[in-house]
Amino acid sequence: MNRIKPRTLSGFMELLPADQMKMEAFMETLQHTYALYGFTPLDTPVIESAEVLLAKGGGETEKQIYRFQKGDSDLALRFDLTVPLAKYVALNYAKLSFPFRRYQIGKVYRGERAQRGRFREFYQADIDIIGDGALDILNEAEIPSIIYRTFHALGLSKFVIRVNNRRILNGFYAMLGLSAQSGEIMRTVDKLDKIGAEKVRALLMEDCGVSPADADEILRFIAIGGGSAAVIAALEGYRGRNETFDRGLDELKAVTAYLPEFGVPEENFAVDLTIARGLDYYTGTVYETTLTEHPEIGSVCSGGRYDDLAGYYTDRALPGVGISIGLTRLFYVLQEQGMLSNAIVTAPADVLVIPMTTDLALAVRTATTLRAADIRAQLYTEQKKFRARMTYADRMGFPFVILIGEDEIAREKVTLKDMRSGEQIAVSPQMAAAAVQRALEERKGGAVIQE
Amino acid sequence: MNRIKPRTLSGFMELLPADQMKMEAFMETLQHTYALYGFTPLDTPVIESAEVLLAKGGGETEKQIYRFQKGDSDLALRFDLTVPLAKYVALNYAKLSFPFRRYQIGKVYRGERAQRGRFREFYQADIDIIGDGALDILNEAEIPSIIYRTFHALGLSKFVIRVNNRRILNGFYAMLGLSAQSGEIMRTVDKLDKIGAEKVRALLMEDCGVSPADADEILRFIAIGGGSAAVIAALEGYRGRNETFDRGLDELKAVTAYLPEFGVPEENFAVDLTIARGLDYYTGTVYETTLTEHPEIGSVCSGGRYDDLAGYYTDRALPGVGISIGLTRLFYVLQEQGMLSNAIVTAPADVLVIPMTTDLALAVRTATTLRAADIRAQLYTEQKKFRARMTYADRMGFPFVILIGEDEIAREKVTLKDMRSGEQIAVSPQMAAAAVQRALEERKGGAVIQE
């Protein structure tokens, strides 16, 4: 036969079973947390009409898009989950109730230049809350709580949710008479972490046409720090000079007002006037999340408030707030950093049942008993030596093995071996199920990330 | 702004939130059941190199494939989950342990002619067990148990898992000297349900060149019925005339030997000599599953034993057994038949928390308390009249609503309303969480399908 060399395209993540189990644990944690906050799962096609997908106009994205003809149709693969959401809401407006809260964890496609850690197919995990005409500020206030609970559930404690408000920045630049350049200034200031204050100051003057005095003023402003209360107090000093600024400050205060009631610890939250998010799309609160000990990773969960979700499809005002996690990249980075827990069970089952004779009745009955007790059980009946069977059990990391030989069949008992301690007991299948259940209950609760 | 009409391509399923919740319940049931049998989840790219994906040669499939260029690359979207599995196993052979048991629930793409109930993007839910060189027959014997538990967990009881063995058919046709035509004969006999015995007889003679006497013999053979034991007893009468037949009969006996131990009720299982599965790929046991009261749907879960998973990638012998559910089509048909349960909660949360004053502290604290107790809670703070808020709660189907007005705040209590009974109680947030938890526990267990 003419053989083809099997390969997976570069830029496409394909995990080995143990890593895939960790990825599944990761995704389940996200799904579970999002559901706790009343988000409904959504699934949209990977393929859309190119006209629909590119309605907004693409810029950088358009070059990266996977676009092709099939018959007479001009098709494209989705490059984010926001455009499909906009389409969905505009299309189903009359059938939805608002606010519409949805989460979507799905693959998106961008034909980026292949390089290490860059993916062409990757999962995004998005949540959005869409209002019909208006959306209460409390929705924005709830987002840090969702981010906190998500990363906490994943196993992290050393992270900071950084929050700002675009109106505060726009209002402040308006005070300086720099409204025309405000977008450009924000993008420059956004580089502060990477290039430092001196270079930002130079760029502000060279690229944004800001005077030396204003550049200093801007750097002074964005350097305001010292905890949320202190930042807000400092911002109050600017009140009354610009309406947009004042509204942004009120929104920021509303966003921080209920943090204790939302269960967000102070150390995991910061008002940070340097963050702006690049996109003009955002109009109010903006969010970034950084790992305290891994600032080099950048933001692992970002988003913000926008006024116009679907203007390119509908004349209805659909304001919203949303955040997104670049799941595939985050998983890859955590893996590289050795931050994925080795404590979670990655075996395909909790128990491997190994019959040692040709009479399989007790072995099958035992597996059935375990499954009825909601325990994952695999039967191993391949014609291999005992040693090869135990190597299989070891290599796959089964927490328990059940051995069934002639003795066991004669006594209607099975030998249950705890692979961690090496302990063995002879018990009935029912008792084995109960013992495994107890042990799994005790051992569970391991998060997928370890700091 | 120049607006584009939002639309979803025909042949692509996109569900409204309540239906999507049912689809999620469907998928979770499959995942959970597959995990109970020791299958590990697998995720492979949607896009593969066209050369790799079409290594086997496509026939009908090749015409339907989504294939396109990106830069210099000739790419294609996967059209099933079997070829990606073959690629994965061949590629990662040295890193996997065998038998390798995996499940994959993923979207596949076929550019079929669009028509009602036909999908171009659809989920397949596959399980396969791959052996290294050999695979014990018990793996084939376990499959009916997996099918039984899956459909039982989905809420069905009226279904039959129909099993046959291709060696029995091949052996039988060899006895008649019809080996050369056996594939064609099987495909003809496969139509028995649809066109009846008379037409099958005619086709056997006209298209397959079978003599009238042999056609009668074939029809007599495939009509053998009366329960597994009776069929096997009748088949024993043919033993000793053909080696392939005898081996097939031994395998069939092994597959039926442990059905009681596997927990498969007799009424959900049948040996059926008419089924063959169209593909030459299958070499031993074959499976089909039909809904007793909806035979028009055809088989909802099919598969079989094959000897050569990945011959077009590797010279290693990789025998296996697998089954597949065409999830999107099955969901669509069940929806059409009104067989999706309306009893399962499709609201995005279990509790809608509605504050009635501008002081939101207690409302936020209550939502946080509920979430800490693993109860899905949504805060509703939009500036709407009370009636509009309750309409939202009704329309979305929240099982519980919590109302918090000035009285509640003064007493640090909340009003918990059971939306089904209309009952209201005033309790602390902790007590509300406990009450909801109890109620949800009592109400749960509803399956996604109702017969």
Secondary-structure map with pairings?
2 copies of one chain form a homodimer.
Chain A: H1 17-36, E1 40-41, E2 47-49, H2 50-53, H3 60-64, E3 67-70, E4 73-77, H4 82-91, E5 100-109, E6 121-130, H5 138-154, E7 159-165, H6 166-175, H7 182-189, H8 192-195, H9 197-206, H10 212-222, H11 228-236, H12 243-257, E8 269-271, E9 282-291, E10 302-306, E11 320-326, H13 327-336, E12 351-355, H14 361-372, E13 377-379, H15 386-396, E14 400-404, H16 406-411, E15 414-418, E16 424-427, H17 429-443
Helix pairs in contact in A: 1-5, 5-12, 6-12, 9-10, 11-12, 14-17
Can you tell me about this structure?
Two copies of one chain form a homodimer. With 451 residues, chain A is an alpha+beta fold. Helix content of chain A is 39%, strand content 20%. The first copy, chain A, is built from 17 helices and 16 strands. In chain A, the strands form three sheets. The first copy, chain A, has an eight-stranded mixed beta sheet. In chain A, strands 13-12-14-15-16 form a five-stranded mixed beta sheet. In chain A, strands 2-4-3 form a three-stranded antiparallel beta sheet. The mean pLDDT of chain A is 94.
Keywords:
homodimer; 16 strands; 39% helix; 451 residues; eight-stranded mixed β-sheet; five-stranded mixed β-sheet; alpha+beta; 17 helices
Rg of chain A to the nearest angstrom? 27 Å
Q: Largest interface, per-chain counts? A: A-B, 104 and 104 residues
- What percent of residues of chain A are in strands? 15-25%
What's the β-strand tally of chain A? 16
Structural class of chain A: alpha+beta
> How helical, in percent, are the residues of chain A?
25-40%
